Amino acid sequence: MQSRQPLLTVQGVTLQYKTPHHLITATYRVSFDVMQGDRFILLGPSGCGKSTLQKAVGGYMTPTEGEMRLKGRKITQPGPDRMMVFQEFDQLLPWKTVKQNVAFALHASKRMSRREAEEKAMEYVSKVGLASFADSHPHMLSGGMKQRVAIARGMAMEPDILLMDEPFAALDALTRRKMQDELLKLWDETKFTVLFVTHSIAEAIKIGNRILLLSPHPGRVKAELNSTTDAQQAIELEQHIHQMLFSHEPEEVEHA
Amino acid sequence: MPEAVARLKDIRRRMDDDRPEIHHDDTEAGELTIIEQRLSGFEILYREAWLRKLVILAVLALIWEIYGRTLNNDLLFPTFSATILAFFTGLMDGTLPAAAWSSGKVLLMGYGLGIVLAATLTALAMASRIGTDFLETMTSMFNPLPAIALLPLALIWFGLGNASLVFVLVHSVTWAIALNTHSGFLGVSRTLKMVGRNYGLRGPAFIMKILIPAAFPSILTGLKIGWAFAWRTLIAAELVFGVSSGSGGLGWFIFENKNMLDIPKVFAGLLTVIIIGLVVENLIFRTIERRTIERWGVQH
């Protein structure tokens, strides 16, 4: 297992951006490797630069230091080999139906002809259980359904890596739990590689197989952990992570 | 699952509570209340907005007719029937359609040029900061200026005729469309823009496939306002200055018939202006709205 080439390497990446009055360092010399088939989690409290880091992997930001390589190629700009799934519900094109939203991604990125794209889109729309809503427009869907379409769109592109930025954060707790289960089921079927950003420790343990723990202001790597599916170990891991994140603060119970 | 365990404990503790849990048996639907019942014919008809409005129109026409007849003075206030008669005579002998067509031609020319100019200005504004400043300054300066106020100047520059009209129309259309399109583009959500770039769309493809459809509600608003400005400006220009005397538009038709004291024809001309306005605003633009932004659920 150790001899495998990493799919994504992030090496000593420092990210900075400017607000009107400040230059802010979001992450400082962050390094990690993502292997093929990983469910790699970026976990940390707000302000640890996890979303910024993912945007940089997406190609929307250029590191001031260090570099990121996907399959050995340096990341310089956004591209369909790294599909993003955002937290916001407005990530679907409102003027296209569910099926068209998925098909458009395939067609616009010049992957395939219109007809092929339609067929493939339908396949993935069914996969996320929305076949009967294929011809609905996004505004007729619930939040959870919209996120499912976004996931279908990301998966249909069969990208090298799927970048998910707190995709379930805006959902209610019940829907979130269901979506987490569904995502794991989809992963069991296709074994895609995903880089998943979250601030929920429980979600990180449930979704991920490897967790990168970041500390805030600026974001630095605190630990890189293996997740577990065993319930007892999960509780211990959750406490362990909790301690690492909040060791400097007085003990408090987290409701994740 | 730690949560599942916690929930089980929760239930057990509740069992000790002195307040009992309550379960309801299913009632047979339809036993107690109306599930679905057809409305009466009158109720169904009364729910149609167009029918209610038609009734209002009919009542107004009736009042008009009665008043016209009691006044019995065609020079001041012709009856409804005389107006309708004049309208159909005008339609039949081709004077009204000809007048409407010559107005329409000028209008489309001005509207088209205005759209092109607005698109250019918006493109410049999107491309550079100085372009944005230019557009904002020009719009804030010219938007409050009624286009018709430029007509005297236009008459000096371009002379009596269509060129002056087109100039004034372009002015009335451009700023409204440019302003709305630009603010529409600025309002496109960051997420959508990121999605578009994620697909690998750049440059013109990005504008055509992401920015324009995303900003379409604002663009359509601009087109509607531009149309309304243009239509009113055109009739006013023709009417007040008789600019289109050479080509003979609708405004000119009204102006001319007033001079000849053929008041039913003046009314018929006004009616034509109203009908064309209604058709464009409520038929053409409404249809576009229904097919696009209403279906997409993005109207404001």
UniProtKB/TrEMBL annotation, chain A:
KW Transport (keyword) present: yes
Keyword ATP-binding found: yes
InterPro entries noted in UniProt: AAA+_ATPase (IPR003593), ABC_transporter-like_ATP-bd (IPR003439), ABC_transporter-like_CS (IPR017871), ABC_transporter_ATP-bind (IPR050166), P-loop_NTPase (IPR027417)
Location of the ABC transporter domain: 8-241
Keywords: ATP-binding, Nucleotide-binding, Transport
Gene3D superfamilies: P-loop containing nucleotide triphosphate hydrolases
UniProt GO MF annotations: ATP binding; ATP hydrolysis activity
Matching SMART domains: AAA
Protein family according to the UniProt entry: Belongs to the ABC transporter superfamily.
Protein name (Swiss-Prot/TrEMBL): ABC transporter ATP-binding protein
Protein source organism: Paracoccus siganidrum
Automatic annotation (TrEMBL), chain B:
Pfam family membership, one: BPD_transp_1
Record keywords, A-Z: Cell membrane, Membrane, Transmembrane, Transmembrane helix, Transport
Domain ABC transmembrane type-1: 92-284
Record has Chloroplast as a keyword: no
InterPro entries reported for this sequence: MetI-like, MetI-like_sf
BP terms from Gene Ontology: transmembrane transport
GO cellular component: plasma membrane
Coiled coil regions in record: none
PROSITE patterns (alphabetical): ABC_TM1
Main location: membrane
Keyword Magnesium in annotation: no
Membrane topology: Multi-pass membrane protein
Intracellular or extracellular location(s): Cell membrane
TM helices/strands, residue ranges: 49-68, 75-100, 106-127, 148-179, 199-223, 235-255, 267-285
Family: Belongs to the binding-protein-dependent transport system permease family.
Protein name: ABC transporter permease
Organism: Paracoccus siganidrum
